[in-house]
Amino acid sequence: MEHIPTILFLLSTLLFAISVEAPPSPLFPDEALPTKSGYLPVKPAPGSSMFYTFYEAQKPTFPLSDTPLLVWLQGGPGCSSMIGNFYELGPWRVVSHATELERNPGAWNRLFGLIFLDNPIGVGFSIAASKEDIPINQRQVAEHLYAALVVFLEQNSGFEHRPVYFTGESYAGKYVPAIGYYILKEKPNGKVNLKGLAIGNGLTDPVTQVQTHAVNVYYSGLVNAKQRVELEKAQEIALALVKSQKWREAGDARNELLTLLSNMTGLATLYNTARSIPYRSDLVVDLLNQREARRVLGVSETMSFDECTDEVEDALHEDVMKSVKFMVDYAVERTKVLLYQGMLDLRDGVVSTEEWMKTMNWSGLGMFLTAERRVWMDGDGVIAGYVQRWGNLCHVAVSGAGHFVPTDQAVNSRDMIEGWVLGKGLFGVDDVKQPISSKLYHSI
Ligand SMILES: *[C@@H]1O[C@H](CO)[C@@H](O)[C@H](O)[C@H]1NC(C)=O
Ligand SMILES: *[C@@H]1O[C@H](CO)[C@@H](O)[C@H](O)[C@H]1NC(C)=O
């Protein structure tokens, strides 16, 4: 009789082992599921809709009805915000394997709600009813974004007064000012409680930015004097085409310049001089082309996912070299603006941004330019970057990061966005040495 408990023990161990191993761990653990995801119709494009994923704040410090909402927009033009979601700043990311989501220690939805929009229509899982509905300029982009966001706010009770911050990267350096300008100018009493605009490594004023490549890489030691001249020639070609308003050719000329730069430097990617391989956004493509991913996100199983969509890129190609700096000028007089760049980016980096910031038409510019640039230390006493702020404008150079700042510096990027939204720490300090000349000027 004594062997019976032993058999039972063995049996139960066996069953336990089976029950642990049998169901393979799902691709999306429950915690990794968005709070909501689906489609938001856009106007005026019947039948078209924007795909979104929304993650509510994990540890909100305000009642939800007052908790800020961050809207994230990817660049391209034509790339999906699911790259931002699953490779950069979302709560769960694919870091090394397409089949394994890992918790992001620097998720941007710790204190704030976070919504990723596949913008413009036709991108990622978004749907464009026809090719003609895909935006060809920033005005159309803004109209669609506004329509989609209003539906989202209306669908969720208690959301109507939540403070909204538009954020984004790269070509979203166009979209973020465009939606900000549209709301501030045309819908100031509308349904979006706009509180700020944030752009990471943005393309905003291409004419100024395209002229900074040669000097930037020359003084970084990446090219020699002869190559610098060659790059300058390529820049001038792009510039001349802009002046004669040959927008498509000007966009091509910029691509040519970047290819030349890539050839000369031999870098794995212009997005980050320190990387030995390109960023692994391809992992997101593998993740989202798995049937289970589409099922849990509420996407038709017949849809395939592309990181960037050629049709949308092509529709906006003539827009690439057009500046939206005047929209930032307009916005910064009325709401707060954050411009941050990873310092290792050779496409849309710090120099490229500072160059156009200096030319802003903004009443606070003089004060901003004389404001102290402060050293930003992380929690371990390591340099996280440099912060300069005056009035509504905040500029951050992020150390140890390239084009995809949240991928490279997850926790620091979250500290930055939280500090900026809440107006805390270095990101909330107005620190400026009163210029002596301006004091004299006022006393005369
Ligand atoms: C860059 O290198 C590739 C491969 O060698 C070459 O085909 C291409 O013409 C080069 N482009 C430029 C702009 O230098
Ligand atoms: C600067 O902005 C003001 C006010 O918006 C405008 O009247 C003026 O024309 C602008 N100046 C330039 C050089 O763009």
Automatic annotation (TrEMBL):
<dbReference type="GO" id="GO:0006508">
    <property type="term" value="P:proteolysis"/>
</dbReference>
<keyword id="KW-0378">Hydrolase</keyword>
<dbReference type="InterPro" id="IPR033124">
    <property type="entry name" value="Ser_caboxypep_his_AS"/>
</dbReference>
<dbReference type="Pfam" id="PF00450">
    <property type="entry name" value="Peptidase_S10"/>
</dbReference>
<comment type="similarity">
    <text>Belongs to the peptidase S10 family.</text>
</comment>
<dbReference type="GO" id="GO:0004180">
    <property type="term" value="F:carboxypeptidase activity"/>
</dbReference>
<keyword id="KW-0645">Protease</keyword>
<feature type="signal peptide">
    <location>
        <begin position="1"/>
        <end position="22"/>
    </location>
</feature>
<keyword id="KW-0325">Glycoprotein</keyword>
<dbReference type="InterPro" id="IPR001563">
    <property type="entry name" value="Peptidase_S10"/>
</dbReference>
<protein>
    <submittedName>
        <fullName>Serine carboxypeptidase-like 50</fullName>
    </submittedName>
</protein>
<keyword id="KW-0732">Signal</keyword>
<keyword id="KW-0121">Carboxypeptidase</keyword>
<dbReference type="InterPro" id="IPR029058">
    <property type="entry name" value="AB_hydrolase_fold"/>
</dbReference>
